[in-house]
Amino acid sequence: MKHVIIPTRNYLYAPSFNDINTAVDLFISYCRGNASCGRGTYVHCKAKRGRSTTIALCYLVKNKQMTFSNVIDLIRAK
Description:
By secondary structure, the chain is an all-alpha fold. The chain has helices spanning 17-36, 51-63, 68-77.
């Protein structure tokens, strides 16, 4: 297991656009690397409420060319 920390404040502060892009680019890189080895990727934040979900949603929009509405529908279905 590889552990990657991307420091982001929680609750009262939204991550910057730059922090989101950095996190999504790292996430894409790890997902591709894991997929090429037959492994999955697990993402979470310490509070398990919003930051990890934000990055996963942005990943789907950026890497899978999904619309925000499609992503929300997918998450709700899961």
